[in-house]
Specification:
- Helices cover 48% and strands 14% of the residues.
- It is α/β, with parallel strands linked by helices.
């Protein structure tokens, strides 16, 4: 049975952690592109790329590490991550004066790997599969005695991520809906619990790449479905399957899940880079890509009278050279 995470856990996390209150930005251009005839919408972009370590992950990592016992802290922490959670754990551990061991796939962008090492963590590489990540992290935990902090399937991490929605709803009045990118589902779970607790009428939508759409398929079919080992996406932060906690919670708090193609993700990323000067990573723009390009989503919000939409821009840890190559590859 999945641990019960409540609004109280999220409120306590907000008091406990020392994070940046990230800004909410708007764009008249994006509003126009997201609007349909007779259905103007406004997008409010929660800019977690300006969070410490460059992504939302610092919230959950800080909360989980702050709640370690003295004995656990003395032995250090271990995790596996494709990058953003790794950086978050490394810095949160450094700030608490404890050791961090991080298992990273060999395919991790060098910018993320370099940052983790720069924060003082010990990095061990593994094959880019979930099974290899988990086995390697378990081996490191056995060798060091470090406490494992899962990147998304951990109640204290999820409570920390929920503070994004707390802030967003305090920064923007009268939101009709929020869109949250989904991979493992930690951020989606925390934000959906927070948003629905504060405003039961708000709509919570998840956004996911079509290429790795296990959340979409699981939600629609009401059964647990997973991506194949060969599934891949430009949104490298969203490759993993839904965690156990997220799967148990999405049917309670999430209203719908929408998907978007690789091309539309990169086209949206280039648009935001150019118009808003925000250097977002592909995973971070999936919510905006859904708002701009998913016809099913546009019909849904028109039917439901949704006009004011908060969207989480989850991070900006991107390899600039690789980003430009993607812009060229997916050029219209």
């Amino acid at each position: 049975m999945a641990p019960q995470i409540t609004i109280d856990h999220i409120l306590q996390a907000a008091e406990r952690i020392n994070v940046r209150r990230t800004p909410v930005l708007t764009s008249a251009t994006l509003d126009l592109l997201a609007s349909q005839p007779h259905n103007p919408v406004e997008l409010f972009l929660k800019c977690e790329l300006f969070q410490k370590t460059g992504s939302f992950k610092y919230r959950g990592a800080s909360n989980a590490i702050a709640l370690l016992s003295k004995e656990e802290a003395e032995r250090g922490v271990v995790t596996h991550s494709s990058g953003n959670h790794a950086q978050a754990i490394a810095l949160a551990a450094k700030n608490q004066g404890i050791k961090a061991y991080v298992v990273m796939p060999t395919t991790t962008p060098i910018i993320k790997k370099t940052a983790v090492i720069g924060y003082g963590a010990t990095v061990t590489e593994c094959e880019p599969t979930q099974a290899s990540r988990e086995k390697t992290a378990n081996d490191v935990a056995q060798e060091t005695g470090a406490t494992f902090i899962h990147p998304f399937n951990h109640p204290n991490v999820i409570a920390g991520q929920g503070t994004i929605a707390l802030e967003l709803l305090s920064q923007v009045n009268d939101l009709d809906a929020i869109i949250v990118p989904v991979g493992g589902g930690g951020m989606l779970t925390g934000c959906s619990i927070a948003a629905k607790s504060l405003n039961p009428a708000i709509k919570v939508y998840a956004a996911e790449p079509t290429n790795v759409n296990d959340c979409y398929r699981s939600f629609k079919n009401k059964e647990r479905l997973v991506n194949t080992n060969t599934s891949s996406s430009v949104a490298d932060g969203l490759l993993t399957n839904l965690g156990d906690i997220a799967y148990a919670e999405i049917h309670k708090h999430v209203d719908d899940v929408f998907i978007v193609s690789e091309k539309k993700i990169i086209n949206t990323m280039e648009l935001i880079w150019g118009r808003m000067k925000l250097c977002l990573e592909p995973s971070a723009v999936v919510g905006v890509a859904v708002a701009l390009h998913n016809k099913e989503f546009q019909e849904k919000i028109k039917k439901d009278g949704v006009k004011r939409i908060g969207i989480v821009l989850s991070g900006g840890n991107v390899d600039i050279v690789n980003a430009v190559q993607l812009f060229q590859k997916y050029k219209d």
